[in-house]
Amino acid sequence: MNTIDEAVMKYFDDCKKGCSNLIASKDLYEAIQKKEKLFMLDIRRPEDFAKNQINGSINIYWSEVGEFIDVLPMDEKIIVICYTGQTSGQVVSLLKVLGYDAYSLSGGMINGWMKGSLPVQAGCST
User: Domain Rhodanese: where (predicted)?
Assistant: First the structure.
């Protein structure tokens, strides 16, 4: 079996063992407050990122993430943020197969972070 096959099998084995690859908004907020080592990757459109973002996150549009794979940190927990959690789940799956410690923000910005009335930063670009 080649390395990719093994990584895919490990991903599905982890899923069977209960690893959901999700992080709840309140848990992310607590991790931020504790200053845990996190890399928050917001994959929404740049214009939406500029309107509201989680403080400390960086923006790379979802279809461009592949161009930046080599600069993503292997030694940090990566939290992927999108609108509702759907697209970030896809990106997380690929990152996990590549060996990253990645998680999707459950519910994304709309049904997770914003619904929980958690703080956002506005007016910044990528």
Answer: 34-122
N- to C-terminal Cα separation, the chain: 40
Q: Are 105 and 112 in contact (CB under 8 A)?
A: yes
Model confidence, pTM: 0.86
Q: Residue 123: how many CB atoms within 10 A of its CB?
A: 8
**Residues in CB range of 72: below 8 A, 6 or more apart:** 39, 41, 78, 95, 100
Residue 122 in domain? no
CATH of the domain at 84: 3.40.250.10
For residue 83, pLDDT over 50 is answered with yes
